[in-house]
Design a protein that fits this description.
Strand order of the largest sheet: 3-4-5-9-8-7-6
CATH topology of one domain: Protein Transport Mog1p, Chain A
CATH superfamily of one domain: Mog1/PsbP, alpha/beta/alpha sandwich
Helix content: 40-55%
Shape: flat
Radius of gyration: 25 Å
CATH architecture of one domain: 3-Layer(aba) Sandwich
Number of helices: 23
Largest sheet: 7 strands, antiparallel
Distance between the termini: 58 Å
Structural class: alpha+beta
Strand content: 15-25%
Amino acid sequence: MVKLILDSEVKPDIKTLQRKKDVEGLVRALKNDDYLIRKEAARALKYVGDESSVDALIDALKFEEWHANYVVLDAVRENAAEALGRIGDKKAVEPLIRTLKDRDEEVRWKSAWALGRIGDKKAVEPLIESLKDKNGDVRKHAAAALGNIGDKRAVEHLIHSMNDKEWTVRKCSVTALGKIGDERAVKPLLKALNDEDSDVKRRVILALEKMKNLAFDPLLKAFYDDDWKIQSLVAEALGKIGDKRAVKPLIAALTDKDKVERNRYVRGKAAEALGRIGDEKAVKPLNKALNEKYIYVRRKAGKALERLGQISKLNHYDDGEISFNYSDFWTIDEGNGSEKIIKGKLEGTHLKFSVNRRDDVEFIGLDEFTELIKDVFLSQNAQIISESEILLDDLKGIELVIENLNVEYSKKVKVVAFRKEDSLYYLLFSGYIEEFDDNIQYIESIIDSFHVIDQ
């Protein structure tokens, strides 16, 4: 009986300590004789995110030879590295640099990720070395971290990593080069439009878009490539850069007399780009493209004209509880559960959305609900890109934008949540990042017009 009482006193309740944000209690638990408790304490501290835990987490990051006998202690260091990255204290930079050589590959990649979050330039050379790590996840996160830090010393090494055997490493290297924005990367990025992986190619477009003036002339030259796949990708990049010098060649591509199936994607992407650039010279050829044989071109031309203010057709949804305006491109269906009111999918994309209602949240505030949502995504190694207060339907709400790059096709999620009386409503939009950004106007039209009808 005495032993049971002593055991209950020694073993802390980590979930309770995390909920109460009891940093002192969690720090003590990092030294517990039970290594599983140490692991859970380190994990909890990454969600609490308090700077007063930094010294204890740095201590937990250290590897000693006897640790090799206990696999669970690898997990302690993994969680400690991630927690230090989330907290962002520069005191952790040197210890994290040391753990880039840790025996455990997850400790190494989480240390690389953490150094990217902190953003200290002391980490540049060690991260460049990590681009040669035998583990693909380490190389991937090292590349991403170098992009976040933005130091030009990494450019040549990242260009080399664009030839890595792992597509995720190539993708992160491309993204990093786009963030750094060095002219040396333009030609290698254009060459990477031939990459075998479609997600890598999409990242090239985003990278070139960020480089704008540096990339425009080489892109325009590449637009005349004989490969229709390259032309399509380049057209997309030109549209995102938005330079009006591209209008004439884009119109020429749209009105190309050789309207065979093979180049319908070039014409569709040219139409889309013209809509983005916004020059009135494009209105007439875009209207003509509405009579195209191929639906892909017609749809892109219609979207472009909508962007140019030439088409403004919105439908109105009203089921007696909620109402909103939405584009013809959305397909709307009834929800399939007690919480989901409706669901929708955007034609020709992987974009989905749902309107949800929770009635069991009388004692949960909006801020607490937001934290619960964040925890769900953070547990999947996603990133919270932004969090802001908004006014929705004359009610105070929260808007979260989340990205997950740790999946085969990088995804973006937008959550808008607000309370009305005893119910909590939240709108959830999700899809591939590029499709999400391309169609943001169709998302915003629903959010801006959303209304809960008084009963």
